């Protein structure tokens, strides 16, 4: 059970540190997948009408639907300090909970406006949690888009949950990161077939899941943007299992290998369980990646998925990475990925968007992975792009989604080739 490390890995290569203008998407976006995942939770954003419009647009909520998120609007009197925003917020929460008895967890989510006026949501969460306990647990975290990337909303949410988890001495594994239910079920099924039975998930789908943590807990991350959650779990005494992330056949096998080694799974049994899905994944990737081989790719920093995806595209799809930009390079999280990523691409941490745009234009990559704000201008300049946010919304983890992951990158190139053919005709 071993994943081959690259003899020329990138763990120790120089990193270009950039501290200029950012092109970022709001951290409130994480609510769109979290409210679907945590099925008895409600996310109340304390923010402006702009925050409300963002969430409605991002979620595509029908007017007759009643989603499990909303916005407590900060009016002009709140922003000007002419009203007691704490009292107003508590009245809104009381009204919400009286109308929605199905809520078991309530997240007060800070935004740019609430943080600018220094509204203390942690104090509000403590008072409201005491008032509505034990039926409802009230927590708070920041989803502000100031100087953060959009996936940090999930990290902040999960990190806020950890201190409230009960204590346990049970020997257990926790999978950390919000995955689509079907992907989570596939992962749990694989682990069960390997003989690893005591497995929990953070975030759990329901507040009464029995999720607990203690010194005999080990955990494996399924998303590379959870550095804050990792630190919160370690403060509770849990131990991290470092591993590449389960993207593609190689990444999934390496991730499962690290977990299986921790639980003493026999090599022959590991091979018997994983042989068939590994073969399916390898075939699916090979088929989907036909148009990717020998093509170049350039990553703008956006989601923190960039390093694992660069490893997948270069090692499994035959692409050549020119630059791999990431908002942060957390080596405790992505170190195993850097060990596998061959030297060659420029690694960049942070962003100076104008300088990076210049480097991208000079390189003229076959495919550019970037945020929504940069994609259309680059397309207009003749560059094929892939929206980074789509890689967070789409099921891409583990063996059965490996081909779909490769397809997300090959489709923009096929589309561009089709458009050129049509124009030529």
From TrEMBL:
Binds 1 [4Fe-4S] cluster per heterodimer. The cluster is bound at the heterodimer interface by residues from both subunits. Residues 26-383 form the Nitrogenase/oxidoreductase component domain. Its EC number is 1.3.7.7. Keywords: 4Fe-4S, ATP-binding, Bacteriochlorophyll biosynthesis, Chlorophyll biosynthesis, Iron, Iron-sulfur, Metal-binding, Nucleotide-binding, Oxidoreductase, Photosynthesis. The keyword Iron-sulfur applies. The keyword Cytoplasm does not apply. Its cofactor is [4Fe-4S] cluster. Pathway: Porphyrin-containing compound metabolism; bacteriochlorophyll biosynthesis (light-independent). Protochlorophyllide reductase is composed of three subunits; BchL, BchN and BchB. Forms a heterotetramer of two BchB and two BchN subunits. Belongs to the BchN/ChlN family. This is Light-independent protochlorophyllide reductase subunit N. The lineage of its organism: Bacteria, Pseudomonadati, Pseudomonadota, Alphaproteobacteria, Rhodobacterales.
